[in-house]
Design a protein that fits this description.
Blueprint: E1 2-7, H1 14-28, E2 34-38, H2 45-55, E3 59-63, E4 74-79, H3 84-95, E5 99-105, E6 110-115
Parallel strand pairs: 1-2, 1-4, 2-3, 4-5
Antiparallel strand pairs: 5-6
């Protein structure tokens, strides 16, 4: 499976990222062969995705924002719901009916959403 990973540049907690990444992998029910990230993003979730890919021997593809969704089979997004670049990727994944594992970090809670889940 080719998994797009997107999210906020302000997220730096690698343990939090990895914990939800493992849940996302369980959600998709397929091994992850490639992780795809936005080439315009320079920190936060992109850095954590690169680190995860390296630690787990998963191929990493860095592509332009506009190609992230079209090149993927699903999306793992961890964000606060405000980032413009992540919002573009999230919206495109929804329109494309991709499976999405969303972790939305709220000031006082964490919400997990599963979109377009296949039975």
């Amino acid at each position: 499976m080719r998994l797009a990973v997107a999210g906020a540049g302000s997220i730096r907690d690698s343990l939090l990222f990895e914990s939800y990444m493992k849940q996302a992998i369980d959600f998709f029910k397929e091994p992850i062969d490639e992780i795809i990230v936005d080439g315009n993003a320079t920190k936060g979730v992109r850095f954590l995705a690169e680190k995860f890919a390296e630690q787990h021997n998963i191929t990493l593809l860095i592509v332009p924002n506009k190609n992230v969704v079209s090149m993927s089979d699903g999306l793992y997004v961890i964000w606060k719901g405000k980032n413009a670049g992540t919002s573009n990727i999230f919206g495109e994944a929804q329109r494309s009916m991709k499976m999405i594992y969303e972790v939305r970090l709220m000031p006082t809670e964490i919400r997990i959403g599963r979109h377009n889940e296949q039975q």
